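Bug #77: duplicate submission created two jobs. Keeping one. Sequence:
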Amino acid sequence: MTGGAGFIGSHVVEQLLQAGHKVVVLDNLSTGRLANLSSFALDPKFTFHAVDIADLAVIRPHFEGIDWVFHLAALADIVPSIEQPIDYTRANVTGTIHVCEAARQARCKRFVYAASSSCYGIPDALPTPETAAARPQYPYALSKYLGEQVVLHWGQVYKLPVVALRLFNVYGPRSRTSGSYGAVFGVFLAQKLAAKPYTVVGDGTQTRDFTFVADVARAFVMAAASSVSQEAINIGSGQPQSVNRLVELLGGEVVHVPKRPGEPDCTQADNRKADRLLGWQPWVSFEKGVRILLDHIDYWRQAPVWDARSIDKATKAWFRYLGTNAEKAA
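Kept job's structure:
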């Protein structure tokens, strides 16, 4: 598995070990954390290698004897991708080519890729099916979509059995605590610990298809165990929730920051394909997922605490490149 020390990857590792599988993790720790693997680091079925997927010669030997490949290594976040598009292309596109090629050469039996629902951009249809047009709005979304196309192409040309899971707004324990301003849960939980107001984008009525990480990890394992191949599949709860509802569940004061360009008002997965092909459905309700997060809130104690001023500074590139003329002038 690539990216196994990351947020989602560490949960996939955990479920695989619990099911009795041997797991080999490749991660350069640029965004992942060894702490995410600490609870099973001594498991004899677990092996970790600190390597960069962009170096094919280095990663290639680690694919020998591997049956299932889970490719989750990637650079994430919108703002850094706008500022550093070459880095994102190297990690998320070139890196994916190298992982596909290593899996092909080693004759691995299954390949599951962590694709992104950000490929849909601002969709015309809600819930959004896999047949919707790809409209990436920023370099991160583009790089993940190009990575998906690489994976499907390796399946088409080299008959590598591949599945791409388009993930919707994943949340849960061990989500990232540092780095660029990004996911709402990490931002809000750090603010809650610091007794600071939640920085709500716009009026907070925008909704997201928040999907609990344990459900997502289960989808990866089910996709690997299936006979499904050459498919892109949505993985989302199908039950979008507003940011205001999240604030209500967390409890606390709010301040509002400007609505950001290139973001949809709503994301909602049409997950009927996942049900039909994999037999996958989400199990964890939004309310239960938030309760679980609050039980693990100490994880975010060392996370940066954002406020309106620091968010404005961090997102200037976002508005500069993606905003309207009026937004840019402001």
